[in-house]
Design a protein that fits this description.
The chain is α/β, with parallel strands linked by helices. It has 2 domains: 4-127 and 304-321, ATPase, nucleotide binding domain (Nucleotidyltransferase, domain 5), CATH 3.30.420; 134-300, ATPase, nucleotide binding domain (Nucleotidyltransferase, domain 5, 2-Layer Sandwich), CATH 3.30.420.40. 42% of the residues lie in helices and 19% in strands. It contains 9 helices and 10 strands. The strands form 2 sheets. Strands 3-2-1-4-5 form a 5-stranded mixed sheet, sandwiched between helices. The protein has a 5-stranded mixed sheet with strand order 8-7-6-9-10, with helices on both faces. The radius of gyration is 20 Å and the shape is globular. It starts with a strand and ends in a 17-residue tail after the last helix. Bound molecules: 5'-O-[(R)-(carboxyoxy)(hydroxy)phosphoryl]adenosine. 5'-O-[(R)-(carboxyoxy)(hydroxy)phosphoryl]adenosine is lined by residues 12, 140-142, 167, 170-171, 182-185, 187-188, 274-276, 278-279, 306-307.
């Protein structure tokens, strides 16, 4: 008999539902929330309300697109954390309610595990997935972590940011440039036309495998502030070069520690995940590095870089196969590590 998992993701501002059948993705529906745009960031209360409005049609569409019936489901996987509590509560409560109605188990998923395991989403049986152990560079708006992945439920954080995440560095610097939120994709677009060697920004000197991005942010801010005193149109006239130089610096910081982690562990496979792994420069740099070192690179489809339920469904699929179900008294958690 087939194993069919419904995955539900509602940790931040995307309501998503996906169906995975025997490890193969049948549907992945994402409703993004535009309500936050005018505030320059996610407003938690508005996010929970939008999740409430979206969740029934999103789950319904995912089931219909997969060509299955609710009664075919084996289990429901949901993101339990980390994330915004109100948002998580919507997905968690919905998963519990539906599972009680259908008399099937629920499986709780750590959102960060989901990002790492997104490389196991197959669209067809012949799709290649990573072999354990591998290193995953998890780079998003809230995290920058180097994770040694030994198994679907056995992950070790080798290094992480001690201040801002890589995505925050993109977003905060973009904000200083007057770009809309989130700024990462705008920097990416502008960087394609800029000279990445034009500006030099400071890089951290911290030991070990941890990251720091706050110094870069400050140095970016001061460069712009000083230059604007001499030329009020400095940002406008140098947008592309600023974006390209910023992106290059972030990539150098990321790669520096990643390379150390690979040397230290001797892994043969490197994967990236999280919103920042959608960045063209990051993707290229990882691909080039892996090729030069004879490593296997796993770079996710852009649809699986940002928050999505396909990654929740695949993480839930492995937990379900292991019989690792969740109790109904499980509550969401705002903060959790790998
Ligand atoms: O994983 P994610 O969707 O959720 C959070 O952790 O919030 O990551 C969002 C982050 C934002 O900081 C956004 O600017 C960044 O991912 N991002 C990018 C790109 N696409 C999304 N950063 C750089 N280049 C991109 N193309």
């Amino acid at each position: 008999m087939s194993t069919i998992i419904l995955g539900i993701e509602s940790s931040c501002d995307d309501t998503s539902a996906a169906i995975i059948k025997d490890g193969i993705l049948l549907s992945n529906v994402i409703a993004s929330q535009s309500v936050h745009e005018e505030y320059g960031g996610v407003v938690p209360e508005l996010a929970s309300r939008a999740h409430q409005q979206n969740i029934v049609p999103v789950v319904d569409t995912a089931i219909k697109r997969a060509g299955i019936e609710k009664s075919d489901l084996s289990a429901i996987a949901f993101t339990r954390g980390p994330g915004l509590l109100g948002s998580l509560l919507v997905g968690t409560s919905f998963a519990k309610g539906l599972s009680l109605g259908l008399r099937i188990p629920i499986v709780d998923v750590n959102h960060l595990h989901g990002h790492v395991l997104s490389h196991f989403i197959r669209r067809a049986p012949e799709d290649v997935v990573p072999e354990y152990p591998f290193i995953c560079l998890l780079i998003s708006g809230g995290n920058s972590q180097i994770i040694l992945v030994k198994d679907y439920n056995d992950m070790e954080v080798l290094g992480q940011t001690i201040d801002d995440a890589a995505g925050e560095a993109f977003d905060k610097c973009a904000k200083v440039m007057g770009l809309p939120y989130p700024g990462g994709p705008h920097i990416d677009r502008l960087a394609a036309e800029g000279d990445a060697t034009r500006f030099k920004f400071s890089k951290p000197h911290i030991p070990g495998l941890n990251y720091s991005f706050s110094g870069l942010k400050t140095s970016f801010l001061y460069t712009l502030r000083d230059a604007k005193k001499l030329d009020p149109d400095f940002i406008e006239n140098n947008k592309a070069d600023l974006a390209a130089s910023l992106q290059r610096t972030i990539i150098e910081i990321l790669l520096d520690k990643l390379k150390k982690a690979v040397d230290l562990t001797g892994v043969k496979t490197v994967a990236i995940g999280g919103g920042v792994s959608a960045n063209s420069g990051v993707r290229q740099a990882i691909a080039d590095y892996c090729e030069s070192r004879g490593l296997k690179a796993f770079i996710p489809e852009r649809a699986f870089t940002t928050d999505n339920a396909a990654m929740v469904a695949i993480a839930g699929y492995y937990k379900y196969l292991a019989g690792d179900y969740c109790h109904y008294d499980a509550v969401p958690y705002a903060r959790v590590t790998i």
